[in-house]
Amino acid sequence: MRKSLLALLLLASAGIAHGQVQLREGFPQQYTVATGDTLWDIAGKYLREPWKWPELWHANPQIQNPDLIYPGDTLSLVYIDGQPRLTLNRGASRGTIKLSPRIRSSPVADAIPSIPLQAINSFLLSNRIVDRAEDFNKAPYIVAGDAERVLSGTGDRIFARGTFDANQSAYGIFRQGKIYTDPKTQEFLGINADDIGGAQVIASEADVTTLALQRTTQEVRLGDRLFSGEERSINSTFMPSAPTSAIDGLILDVPRGVTQIGALDVVTLNKGQRDGLTEGNVLAVMKTGETVRDRITGQPVKIPDERAGLLMVFRTYDKLSYGLVLYASRSLAVLDKVRNP
């Protein structure tokens, strides 16, 4: 028995040495998922490089939705063909609730998210990217307020001009924010649309539509644009992973307006779907080295870039992406570089 265990450990060490997965020192043999955990947290308990979680994960074919992990589930580290793998045993949280006169299976706990959703939930409600300037300019716009008001608030009626979807009754109201261009190529990348409120369609005649303001984040003005809700919601269960394409990008902006970027801040990147980024991709943040003067030669010298953090992409557009900073060893800033981890 001792000999076989030793052989197993040697095989595992050989796999790690060949770069299969780098296990963290002191990793647990078993771990029971707790409320408040995230997939990133758990991956960090086992791996030096948490974005390599898919290489460690062993999907159990007998379990329904094995990619979803719930509080109360138990993860066990085993070795398959000499390689470390995690297996899943469902906990009591996935039990059945008996109802009369029929039986219905119902989860009593939600699957844990990949990243802390509370850090991005409010952000997702108030920001969106419009990929093309013409899409923003063609969107319906507010032409008048009730009783000829210039500014409107919750409960007021507003009148908008433009083409509305007959199957859509609720619209978001947005105001043009920052126009993003690539710092290197000057290519147009998209428009940040700032959330102003939401309205419900009441009636339409010709190209003018009457709406009732249901909520506002600030006073609604003439010229504000209306968009239907984004079709996709945030995917909370994506796996952390490295990009499949080479990424050499920049942090363009911090939508929340802070100047120094740290853990759990949301940033805008100048890379998107066309560059191969997908939701769940992890990127290293490289702190841009300063340029200093060599006192001996008098020449300017560029200090090398330094790896200073990690972020995970949680929403992608054609040319832009939003990412959440998961770790920062020092303060980050706009125009710091992002690369494959």
What is the domain tally? Answer: 3
How many alpha or pi helices?
5
* Major sheet summary line: 7 strands, antiparallel
In round numbers, the mean pLDDT is: 84
Rg result:
25 Å
Query: What is the percentage of strand-forming residues?
Result: 35-45%
Count of distinct strands: 22
- The helix/strand class is mainly beta
Ends apart, CA distance between termini: 40 Å
Order of helices and strands: HEHHEEEEHEHEEEEEEEEEEEEEEEE
> In oligomeric terms, what are we looking at?
single chain
> How much helix, percentage-wise, in residues?
10-25%
The global form is flat
Runs in which pLDDT lies below 50 for 5 or more consecutive residues are: 1-19, 95-108
